[in-house]
């Protein structure tokens, strides 16, 4: 059973998502919150698998709520999915940096929304190749941050290759095909890289790959 917490300041949005989720046999809505502070408190109490968090809320917004959840070791199993009205923008990238597993636009089709919740619950990033390209076009062309040389040095060559392919939006099966290895081995390389880089999920690997210079717009 996938346990979901909904954090949004609009009651109509919360009730709409709840109605959509609760008709599914494998999904349970365990709570609702109207702002980020309440959402973080409920996440600590309820330990959901997924926290659907609106990016713009009064008092404590979605980015700060994501940051607090990501910084709490007790909430390491909570995957934050940012909800936005505007598609990919600077708020979404800030949320990814803060620790979000991905994002959804609120006008998403119901079937796609349910699929995305299940994808996030598996620990996969909600970053399709088209979204990754927008990330490159709008943010990665900025000067990279002067880090993290030592972190890159700690990865094996295969782990670097796996992270670079994650940053291009490839799944474990696609990485396996590209590197001519088994899917299990591909997953092992990705998981080991996440552990070494202290990344919560694949979305964090995407941010790391571009900010560290492991992948550049020209190489993607």
UniProtKB/TrEMBL annotation:
InterPro entries assigned: CheY-like_superfamily, NreC/VraR/RcsB-like_REC, Sig_transdc_resp-reg_C-effctor, Sig_transdc_resp-reg_receiver, Tscrpt_reg_LuxR_C, WalR-like
Positions where 4-aspartylphosphate occurs in the chain: 54
Gene Ontology annotations of biological process type: phosphorelay signal transduction system; regulation of DNA-templated transcription
Residue ranges constituting the HTH luxR-type domain according to the UniProt record: 148-213
Keywords annotated in UniProt: DNA-binding, Phosphoprotein, Transcription, Transcription regulation
Record's keyword annotation contains DNA damage: no
Record protein name field: DNA-binding response regulator
The organism's place on the tree of life at top rank: Bacteria
Molecular function terms, GO-annotated: DNA binding
Organism (species): Virgisporangium aliadipatigenens
Domain Response regulatory: 3-121
SUPFAM superfamilies referenced in this protein's UniProt entry, alphabetically: C-terminal effector domain of the bipartite response regulators, CheY-like
Membrane listed as a keyword: no
Pfam families assigned to the protein according to its UniProt record, in alphabetical order: GerE (PF00196), Response_reg (PF00072)
